[in-house]
Amino acid sequence: MKWYNKYLSVYNTSLSSTYGEIINEVRNNISNLQSKNPLVTVSVIAYNEEKHLLGCLWSLSEMKCKYPIEIIGVNNDSKDKTEDIFKAVGLPYYNEYQHSCGYARKCGLEHAKGKFHINIDADTLYPPKYVEIMVDSLMKPGVVAASSLWSYIPDKDHSSIGLKLYEFTRDCHLFIQSFKRPELSVRGLVFAYHTEYAKKVGIRVDIKRGEDGSLALGLKKYGKITFVRKSAARAVTGYGTVGIDGSLYNSFKVRAIKSLKNIFSVFSAKKEYNDEDSNLIK
Q1: Strand-pair category, 116-121 with 191-194
Q2: Which of 79, 137, 144, 179 is the most exposed place for a label (fewest CB within 10 A)?
Q3: What is the pLDDT of residues 247-268, one digit of tens each?
Q4: Does any domain span residue 131?
């Protein structure tokens, strides 16, 4: 049985009164994990994530970590019961009323007490050793950031073979990019970094997407960005932007064409990128 199967019982479902026992369990687990002097801050950002947040927090509450941690939440002005879930499980959280992943991640970073900061997306489930493995990587000399890999939750609309092929080709592409342009291979849902350096660089709030890559680009001047390939650190998530393109085949085709157009550029480093007008928040 997959490690995440139990969490699927509350994933992609609205908050229900029948979840009382699970909520109490998550509350107790989180309370036992919280440290007054954390080495690492785990911040969970959420915007209208009522259907996913409890599953995410349930997975985090069962983490196995040798380091002192704190878990905090950021409610990005949700209109559903996202905030109710934060309250129900007793998680310290902050309300961020300006919308965007950038603002939400920035809010989490600003309130982080730990030396290290780990981004968590509320629609994602994390394996029990995830945080520990990411911190292990950050503890290595010269490393300022670490990014892991992720898989998609199988469902009736996506075959397991199709998912494996899609993830394999994507992972290979990210691996090739990571040598010269690591900033293009990081993703916010599986990203961790030194808090102090990240605060110096800052998180962009003027773009719709790419705030994670922009932060990684700025962090490069302080040290190395490493990539964690261990299966024990592979998160699982919903289909997000992949689903926008319809089938996995269409998603693969769109991304493959874009990658092929820029295939030679990944073999040289870059210090800055130009913003696309369509990605700017106006």
Answers
A1: antiparallel
A2: 79
A3: 655 665 666 556 656 666 677 7
A4: yes
> Which CATH number fits the domain that encloses residue 84?
3.90.550.10
Q: For the chain, give the number of residues.
A: 282
Whole-prediction pTM: 0.92
Is position 200 within any domain?
yes
Number of folded domains that form the chain: 1
237's enclosing H/E stretch is strand 235-237
Beta bridge partners of 45: 74, 121
Q: Which domain holds residue 195?
A: 5-269
Residue 260 lies in a domain: yes
The answer for residues whose C-beta is within 8 angstroms of residue 176's C-beta and 6 or more apart is: 266
d(CA 165, CA 158): 11
Structure tokens at 127: 């394996």
Residues 267, 137, 166, 239, CA torsion sign: negative
Instruction: Answer for the pair 202, 218: CB distance below 8 angstroms, yes or no.
Output: yes
